[in-house]
Amino acid sequence: MRLTKPLKSAPFHILLALARGDSYGYAIMQSVKEDSDGRIPLRTGSFYRHLQILLESGLVAETHAPDDADARRGTYYRLTSLGRTTLEREARHWERVVGLLRQTPSEES
Predict the structure, then answer these.
(1) Could you tell me the CA-to-CA distances from 69 to 20, 77, 84 in Å, in that order?
(2) How many Cβ atoms sit within 10 Å of the Cβ of residue 7?
(3) Could you tell me if 76 and 62 are in contact, meaning their C-beta atoms sit under 8 angstroms apart?
(4) Which of 3, 46, 52, 107 is most buried as measured by Cβ atoms within 10 A of its Cβ?
(5) Strand stretches in the chain, DSSP E
(6) How far apart are CA 37 and CA 14, in angstroms?
(7) Whole-structure pTM value
(8) 8 A C-beta contact, residue 79 and residue 87
(9) What are the φ and ψ backbone dihedral angles of 57, each rounded to 5 degrees?
(10) Per-residue confidence (pLDDT) for residue 1, from 0 to 100
(11) Is residue 17 included in any domain, yes or no?
């Protein structure tokens, strides 16, 4: 299954967190919270539903934990090359949107 529609906020932020390096579920959730200033409310259930779709779509893959990782942290995930391409496509789209917004005349009071 390949995602061609624009990504929703939560999956976008999950990919963004993994673009910084391999990570495990709780750390990814914390990155999403920080990156979104708390605007993306991910609970464990919704996080893993989004993650499952990203895994099935080939944007994210399970990977081995680093040798020095705490075994209690569970499964680690990594961004695939398709995931990176998708994230870059989304970033270009939002850069374009922000550019259009900046070209829009503002209303003066």
Answers:
(1) 17, 13, 24
(2) 20
(3) yes
(4) 3
(5) 23-24, 60-63, 76-79
(6) 14
(7) 0.85
(8) yes
(9) -85, -5
(10) 47
(11) yes
Query: Is residue 108 included in any domain, yes or no?
Result: no
Q: What is the pLDDT of residue 14?
A: 97
Confidence band of 20 (pLDDT split at 50, 70, 90): very high
Residue 66 domain-assigned (yes or no): yes
CATH code at position 95? 1.10.10.10
- Domain range enclosing 50: 9-103
Report the chain's mean pLDDT, rounded to a whole number: 89
| pLDDT tens per residue across span 69-91 | 666 677 999 999 999 999 999 99
Question: Helix-strand-coil percent breakdown of the chain, rounded to 5?
Answer: 55, 10, 35
Contact between 18 and 74 (Cβ < 8 Å): no
